[in-house]
Write a structure and sequence with these properties.
It contains six helices and nine strands; from the N terminus they run ααβαβαββαβββαββ. With about 220 residues, the protein is an alpha/beta fold. Strands 3-2-1-4-5-9-8 form a seven-stranded mixed beta sheet, with helices on both faces. Helix 1 packs parallel to helix 4. It is globular, with a radius of gyration of 16 Å.
Length: about 220
């Protein structure tokens, strides 16, 4: 396998190993997801007819469950088999479709999604794949559609942690300014951006929290 494949296998196997531990941590330690989901809901005019994609749904709570309560159709994606299994149990609503897949391999029609939500997931991609993923999300969103995500804030070409919540794990990131620039280059207008920290495995870790709206690409921008 190449380096990119190795990283993705590591992430998949890591979350398969710690799926239940991660679910417990999510519910006990992390509340910013619900805060930002409420902001997302306020930006979607009619959620009852909207379709949303969640990249990195984890065990489905709290985010997937809240999305299912508000949107007509939710596609919940994760690279981990164990996470998808937990999410199916935790979120039994009929309006949710679960997809176990590498997010870069997903396909949707252009202009078909009202919102895309990606909590702690794009950061698990190799860094060279992240700008293209943002551009792909822009393509999937309807005009004026919303991306809600969090991204890294450090210049990290790729890090492997030997013991994160009990498993090996991989991340990569650009710094906050570079992430904002990548989003704008992809065609997004930044609605809100803020660096906020969460308690993660005993440490306070900062993330760039983003609400961005699909705008019109200017000449020379975006899709290559």
């Amino acid at each position: 396998m190449d380096k990119t494949s190795d990283a993705k296998v590591l992430v998949r196997e890591g979350y398969n190993k710690i799926a239940e531990t991660y679910q417990k941590w999510t519910l006990e330690e992390e509340t910013l997801r619900t805060v930002f989901l409420e902001k997302l809901f306020s930006h979607i005019g009619d959620t009852s007819t909207a379709k949303v994609l969640e990249l990195g749904c984890g065990a489905g709570i709290p985010a997937t469950r809240l999305l299912a309560d508000h949107f007509q159709h939710v596609v919940a994606n994760d690279i981990s088999d164990a996470q998808i299994d937990l999410a199916r149990t935790n979120v039994p609503q009929a309006n949710v479709t679960f997809v176990r897949e590498d997010m870069t391999q997903l396909t949707f029609e252009d202009d078909s999604l009202s919102a895309v939500v990606a909590f702690y997931s794009i950061i698990h991609l190799p860094r060279e794949e992240q700008p293209a993923m943002l551009q792909q999300i822009w393509t999937w969103l309807t005009p004026g559609g919303i991306l809600l995500c969090n991204l890294g804030v450090s210049d990290d070409p790729g890090t492997m942690n030997e013991d994160w919540l009990g498993a090996r794990m991989y991340w990569s990131s650009f710094n906050a300014a570079a992430n904002i620039e990548q989003l704008k280059k992809a065609g997004f207008a930044i609605v809100e951006s803020e660096v906020l920290s969460i308690k993660e495995d005993g440490d306070m870790v900062p993330f760039l929290w983003i609400l961005a709206k699909k705008g019109c690409l200017e000449a020379g921008q975006g899709q290559q």
